[in-house]
Structures are given as structure tokens and as C-alpha cells.
Amino acid sequence: MKLRWNPIVKKDLQVTARSMRLSWGLFAYEAVLTMAFLLALSVIQQMGSSFYSYGNVYGYLIYLFPVLSVAQVCIVALIVPIITASAISGEKERQTFDIMLTTCMSPFSIVLGKVMSAVLRILFFVAAGMPIMALAFVVGGLSWSYLFYFVLTIILLSLLSGSVGILCSALCHRSITAVILSYAFYFVIYILTFLPMMLKGLVAQVENMGESMLPLLFNPIIFYEEFFMQLMAGESLFGGETSNFTRSEVGFLTYHLSQGKVWMFLSAACIFLLSFLLLLAAAWKVNPMNASSGRKRKQN
Amino acid sequence: MSLCGSIEKGKGINMLYINDLTKNYGSFTAVNHLSLHIPEGDLFGFVGPNGAGKTTTIRIVCGLLRASRGSVRIGSTAAAVGSKEMKRMIGYVPDFFGVYDNLKVREYMDMYGSMYGMHSRDITKLTDDLLELVNLSDKKEVYVDTLSRGMKQRLCVARALLHNPRLLILDEPSSGLDPRARVEMKELLKNLHSMGKTIVISSHILSELSEMCNSIGIMNRGQLITAGRIEDIMQQISGGKRMHIQIASGMETATRILKEQAGVKIESVRENEIMILFSGADEEISALIGLMIQNQVVLTGFYREEGSLESLFMQLTGGGAQ
């Protein structure tokens, strides 16, 4: 069977490639990444010239990788919702969305096409940032496979951010409202997932945290912390031989999930699942056959 | 009670079946028990003032809105509204043409062809043919956003025809177009009709519809007031064909003959003209003229008054359209 492009991805990439916005976006991305690199380099130089480092600046250069990666993660997390939050609402504003819905494309294909085009655009940016990322590899100590794993996590993060954006876009009629709602959604995923743990630890002040950390499986901040811990130090943020936790501090499930690399892979699966569910919700919302009949449209 | 507008057209089968369609927005009823059957190959005009429910009906047929009640069927298929099978049978042209920046006419057609699951080779061939049909062959490599509104609307028709739908639905295709673009659009639709396409047009411009359409449906406040062939509706509303008979001499004889004829109702008698309402067949008119001439009535003129869609519309709805 011949593999076919999603027509929306093809159109979006064609339109984006001809736009000056892509060039300016790439320029801004590179500029931010360069600034992050220079900032990290100056910090590393200061650390290298301190009394305890014995002037060995090269030992610290390995930290360029997580610093530049985190910079990219932050940029991606911030710009993907902007791209996707205007995807459906933008089509509605242009009045092209109705035509799209009258074609044979299913609502899920439409929302998936929109998110995939956003992910591909992000991959352009990441590819453009590779030369700067490669500077972290000059001094050795890092495997090229790290870069590959990092790109995989960026795709996962773009998928999550894109799904959040597309759902908000499906819920809102105006792009700006959709962008604001996307960041509100971010607050829920990035901050409120800490809430059960904080309530248990700070408010109740119990010694055993139970399973209150499980919502953090959906939190990209914890996922990236765990990812870099595993990659750079080879140990988990939570557990393992040199565990932060003992069995008496956390619940049974949390303890076993935090062993080895289980948390990292499970968190990736949870983030993927969440993205998929958000995409399904967006597809359900844009399907006119599911839409509520409360809103009165223009009639002639 | 619902009014079912069914347009008889020889042996032709019906293309669009709308049965008892109702759409409620809360307590407001936009479409109220609408039943309508449109024959294959018809050019059907949907007429009604703002808020009559034309666009709502069209959106339901196209699968863009869920009906509160009722059913829509195309041809003999039992496909549900909004299903892929149904979507393949409908070409939809909205009243407004949305534009993507930086997309060429060829790419625009290619994108929508792909959305219907067509192969790129077929899309390329059909695009060439359709752009020629809508007179845009020379604009293939031009960016869509640089086209004039009339050109965009014709491109939209070409796009709607790309998957060879059985039914073409146009919602206010002439809105916002200049007179020249309107004429071009009208000619294009006449051309498509002559090719055998079933077309449904919703419009406010009644004069335009009366020139193009062979049948109409008049909606008001969500209800279908009447539907059918324009001349049949005219006749039905006025109670017959209105004739003007101009007479040079023999006025009394002519009046007597007309009074004696069945199916003739004298509406007015002026100095040299009698206006009648005739409900018989066309052959009977010639027999009537022959009888008057045999009785020494000198006729100087005889013509049938053409009723306008505007007057019909005003009579049925109490105004509201151009």
C-alpha cells in the first residue's frame, strides 16, 4: 500500500515554507539557542577557573548538552501551543474549516494533520539547532545516540503541546482565546500535577507520601528531569540502588515504578496516551455531528 | 402539518430527499418540518428572506450541522448524513471563499483532491479540465489570494466538482460579486446544468434565480411555503395564465364569447383590451382565438403575462428579498 501524505500536513508545510514567518522563527530560535550557549559557556568558564576545579574547564563542557536541550524544550513547549492553538480556530476565522469538514477527511485526520504539521515544523527548528547542539559533543563524553533520544523526546513533547493547543483551538472560536486557554491547560499539566504530593507532604505532613506522586507521570518537567538523570548520571530521579526513597516513604506502586528506567518509559507512555486522548477530544469537538445544538449560526 | 415539496420531472428519479427536517436551537426553531424532494438534473433555487432557514437546511444536508429531527437522503443510497459516502456525493460551495496565503491554484485543487482520497494523476487531469470549465486555465500557477472575488468563487465551484459529486450545493454563490462576475457565475451554473448536474442554489437575488432555475422552493420562518416548477407555482398562485387580448372592433362579441367559455375568467375590460385568467391547456387558447376571429372580432394583439418571481415571492412571504 502506498503511504499517502495527510493533505493538511502537505498544505501547511507548503504554506509555511513560503512564509517569511518561518525564516524569522528559525532566526529567533537560533538566536535564543546561541544566547543559552553563550550564557552556559560563561558559567562553565567561571566554574573552571574556581579553586576546586584545578582549571579543568573541559570537564564541565559536558553540561552544555542538558543546558541547550532544556533551552530547546522550553522554546518548543512555549511555541507549539501558539502554532496549534490557531490551527482550527484560524481555519474557522478564514471560513475554510467548513469546506474541510465536507471532504472525506475524518475529524481525527484533520486534527492529527494539524498537530503533525506543527511537530514537523518543530523538527525543522530542532534540525536547525543541531550545529549548536553539536558543540556539546566536541569535547567528548557524550554519545550521538543521546541526540537521537533527545529528538524523540522533543517529538513527544511537541505532540503533547500540539494536542493541548489543538483541543483549545477546537473549543474556542478565536485564536487568541485558544492560545490563552492552552497556557491555562499547561498550568494544569505542569503545576497542578504536583498538587497531590504537595498537599500530602506540606499540608498533611505525613511521612509516607503514598501514591500522591503518580500524577507526575503526566508531567513533562519530571519526565525531562528523569530523562537527563538517566542519560547523564545513569540513575533515576526517584529510586534505584541509591534511592531517594525508601519503601516506607512512598506507596507500593510509586516505589516499584521509580526503580531503574521504569518511570521514564512509563512517563513517556503516559504523556503519549494523554496526547492521544486530547486529540480524540479535539476530533470529537470539531465533528459537526457531535456538536451541541445550543449555538445558533448565521441563517439565510 | 409538513408541506412536502415534490417536483415532478418526467420519468426522472429524485436526487435529494429531505424528510420532515427540523432544527432547533434551544427554543428557536430554524427549520420546521421541512420535506422536499429534488429530481435528478434539476437546477433548484432555494429562496427566502434572511433567517428563513435556507443556510441551516444546506448545512444539515452537507453534514455540517446535526438535525434535531428528520432525515436526508441522496439518490437511492441509504448513507447517513456526514458519512464519507454521503460526502462523496455532495459538492459544497459556501457563500464566502476562505483564502490560504501562499497557496497556488493548482496546489489548492491538489489539496482538496487528496482530501477526497483521489490519486494525484487523476487530480492533475481533472484540475486541468475543471479550470478550463471555469475559465481559469491561465491561473493555474497563480496564488489563490491574488485572484478576484469572482475568480475565487469560480475556483470554489471547480473545487466542489473535483470529486465528481452527484449533487452540487451553492450557498449564495453570487453574494459580493460584481455584475460581470455574477453573469459569469450564472453562465457557469447554466453550463453545469446542461451537463446534467443536479444543482441546489440558495440566493436572495430572485431575478437571477428565475433566469437560471427550473424549479424553486420558497422558505419563510423555517417552513417551506411552496416548491415546484416556477411556472406551476405561478399558475397555482394566480389561479391560471393571465392573458391580454387587444381588440380593434367587436368588443361586445368578444366579451360574450369569453364569458361562455369554461376555464376563462374575465379580470378586467378596458377600451381596447380584455384581461382574462385562463386555466385551460395551451391548445385551447388557439381554439379560443379562432372562435373570436370566426365571430368577426378583429384582434390586434394577444399575449400572455409573464409573472415575476419577485411578485410571487412577495405574495408568499410578504417581502424580504431583493
What's the mean pLDDT score of chain B? 84
Number of domains of chain A: 1
Rg of chain B (C-alpha, Å): 24 Å
Strand segment tally of chain A: 0
Fraction of residues in H or I helices of chain B = 25-40%
| Strand coverage percent of chain B | 25-35%
Number of helices of chain B: 11
What gap, in angstroms, lies between the N and C termini of chain A?
45 Å
Overall SS class of chain B: alpha/beta
Mean pLDDT across residues of chain A:
85
Low-confidence runs of at least 5 consecutive residues of chain B: 7-11
Sum up the overall morphology of chain A in one term: globular
Runs of chain A in which pLDDT lies below 50 for 5 or more consecutive residues are 293-300
Distance from N terminus to C terminus of chain B (CA atoms, Å) equals 29 Å
Order of helices and strands of chain B: EEEEHEHEHHHEHEHEEHEHEEHEH
Q: What is the chain-wise order of helices and strands of chain A? A: HHHHHHHHHHHHH
For the largest interface, the chains and their residue counts are: A-B, 36 and 51 residues
How many beta-strand runs of chain B?
14
Helix content of chain A: 55-70%
